[in-house]
Amino acid sequence: MIPMTLDEIAQVVGASLHDVRDPREPVTAPSAVDSREVAPGGLFAATPGARVDGHDYAARAIEGGAVAVLASRPVGVPALVVEDVQLALGRLARHVLEHLGPAVIGLTGSVGKTTTKDLLAQVLERHAATVATDRSFNNELGLPLTVLRADATTRYLVLEMGASRKGDLTYLTGIAPPQVGLVLNVGTAHAERMGGGPAAVAEAKGELVEALPADGFALLNADDPYVMGMAGRTRARILSYGGSARAQVRAEDVRMDDRARTAFTLVTPSGRAPVALDLIGEHQVSNALAAAAVATALGLDVAEIAGGLNAARRRSPGRLEIVERPDGVTVVNDAYNASPESMRAGLRAVKALAGARRTVAVLGAMGQQADASRARHAEMGRLVADLRFDVLIAVGAGDPLAMAEAAESSNPGVAVHAAEDVAGALRLATALVEPGDVVFVKASSEIGLGALARALAAPPS
Fold it and tell me: Which segments constitute the Mur ligase central domain (predicted)?
């Protein structure tokens, strides 16, 4: 955050000051929407949530070191009062960005955004000061909060951009206009909100490349026809990546070790170099290539890029997060979110990791699948059966039961169990898991299976 006085911030966002003793007091630290994460010298943005209203935590934020609260009403402590806190936070972020001028990289896609963002950040950090989206803070609040973490030393600003409906990316790129835009893929996530099919999802995701300047770069996945179809929607230069031999950034000689980690030869316009990822699953190759394409567009050579990818580690929790218990049980926590694409990738990665070991899948619902939900859950059940998982615990009523039924009918060798809720699933898993097993836990985040994964990963008493 560039230092700004309360009075300066008020002028930028159109706020009135309430209970402020000194309008010249500076804000010197990043902003937060969680009162527990306020940094001394920062600004607390009071936003209404599904369960709590940030205005109720204004005093706690000030006690925690916030200089003032960005609020929609007076709160009895120093506050900048605006009509709309979200819009004001966006205006402040845009103002700060205009005064800093880092290279802004926006990335979007149906799956893989957070892992790709984490890989890219670790490549760029070795080259120059980099600020990247924390966890998956990729929406209308998370993006400006990320921008407000940048300062005068920041050279690269890596912004994960989520879109649940048309117009979302237009809004986000209005706050932080990118010079480089990366589109990973087009899948089923949020499809019902965007019009119901992949073409509608592609239309929404393509808003990112439409926002790019003529001297910018659009990084497009050569293996996804919907993504490559966006080439005609941008003024920017196109750089393609993927497994295709026609891709400008591509992987050759892809292989997997006995821990399901992939290695390959990275090929870019500047040459080729070996890469060995410390992440499980063959799908990580595409994520790594996406990060490499961005770094290539920014001018890094192939050796620098490969060095960053080789040194990169998993950063965000709940995404193929591996915990080894003392009794030899391996718990793979992939419960941050779920879609058919990520469920398929996770199941295959875990089977590759397990080898000959016994495998247990604890799976809950995949959200936002609309009318196709039951059929897609049944498809996942058949995949569990085809991959020969030993045990399936389906968590929840409705669609997870379709998953269980499909698995049982496709392969009677799979021991199928149903649990009404997370607590029941944990009891089942605790009873069924044996020393040496590999346990895969996945569902959409609202199901709460992350807590089960963490409990299961704890050493047995």
Answer: 108-295
Specify the pLDDT at position 164. 87
CB 189 within 8 A of CB 339: yes
Region of poorest pLDDT, from 62-71, 134-143, 231-240: 134-143
DSSP secondary structure of 136-163: T--STTHHHHHHTT--TT--EEEEE---
262 is in an annotated binding site: no
CA distance 107 to 139: 12
Q: Is 104 annotated as a binding residue?
A: no
Q: Coil, strand, or helix at residue 65?
A: coil
Look at residues 383, 320, 378, 374 and name the one whose alpha carbon lies nearest to residue 346.
Answer: 320
HEC profile of 176-227: CCCCEEEECCCCCCCHHHHCCCHHHHHHHHCHHHHCCCCCCEEEEECCCHHH
C-alpha span between 79 and 20 (Å, rounded): 7
CATH of the domain at 21: 3.40.1390.10
For 18-41, what is each residue's pLDDT tens digit?
999 999 999 999 999 999 999 999
Q: Over the range 425-451, which residues count as b (16 or more CB within 10 Å of their CB) and which as e?
A: bbebbeebbeeebbbbbbbbeebbbbe
How many Cα atoms occupy the beta-carbon half-sphere of 264 within 13 Å? 26
Instruction: Consult the annotation and say whether 268 binds a ligand.
Output: no
Select from 247, 280, 311 the last residue of a domain: 311
Q: Determine the Cα–Cα distance for residues 284 and 116; give it in Å rounded to an integer.
A: 9
State the burial class of residue 398 (Cβ atoms within 10 Å of its Cβ: 0-12, 13-18, 19+).
exposed
- 111 annotated to a ligand binding site: yes
In a domain, 90, yes or no: no
Where residue 338 sits, what CATH number does that domain have? 3.90.190.20
Tokens coding 118: 């984490």
Domain ends where: 311, 339, 360?
311
**Mean of per-residue pLDDT scores for the chain:** 95
List residues bridging with 360 in a β-sheet. 391, 439
Name the band, by pLDDT with cuts 50, 70 and 90, for residue 196: low
Beta strands (DSSP E) in 328-420 are 330-333, 359-363, 391-395, 415-419
